[in-house]
């Protein structure tokens, strides 16, 4: 049962479910969505207030695809692809917009990490380009010019909810 307002404990009727998910944050909601998409019919999500009202809301809005490992990058890539298709699949507007990302490095260590994640992104089929400080400044004029280098991940590599 999906309701617009929280169900009070006394209002909740006890019944058995094939799958019971505790927590309606991003992980619980995603698990319920994927189980239903794969044919599970008796799935319930228990959340103490409303869906995604816990710590999930802190991270809402920014979706990036570059991570420190190939596996995590592939998972993040899938997530962005899923968010892009949700409106067409469900008819529910999500407000998701792909707008790319601009990452910058101010230290040599961060530059190494940025170059490494850009390399992983490329190997996973994502567009990523190491760019100079002047190119980064051209893309984002308010940028502090003391950066060492940047990485531009246009279009499909990032997004946000608006």
Short description:
This protein is 37% helix and 19% strand.
Give the helix/strand layout.
Layout: E1 19-22, H1 26-37, E2 43-46, H2 56-59, E3 62-64, H3 70-90, E4 96-98, E5 101-105, H4 108-123, E6 129-131, H5 133-139, E7 149-153, E8 158-161
Parallel strand pairs: 1-2
Antiparallel strand pairs: 3-8, 4-8, 5-7, 6-7
Would you mind describing this structure in some detail?
This protein has 162 residues and is α+β, with helices and mostly antiparallel strands. Helices cover 37% and strands 19% of the residues. It contains five helices and eight strands; from the N terminus they run E-H-E-H-E-H-E-E-H-E-H-E-E. It has helices at 26-37, 56-59, 70-90, 108-123, 133-139, and strands at 19-22, 43-46, 62-64, 96-98, 101-105, 129-131, 149-153, 158-161. The strands form three sheets. Strands 3-8-4 form a three-stranded antiparallel sheet, with helices on one face. The chain is elongated and about 60 Å long.
Q: Assign the structural class, choosing from mainly alpha, mainly beta, alpha/beta, alpha+beta, or little secondary structure.
A: alpha+beta
> Widest sheet: strand order?
3-8-4
Low-confidence stretches: none
Mean pLDDT: 80
What is the succession of H and E elements? EHEHEHEEHEHEE
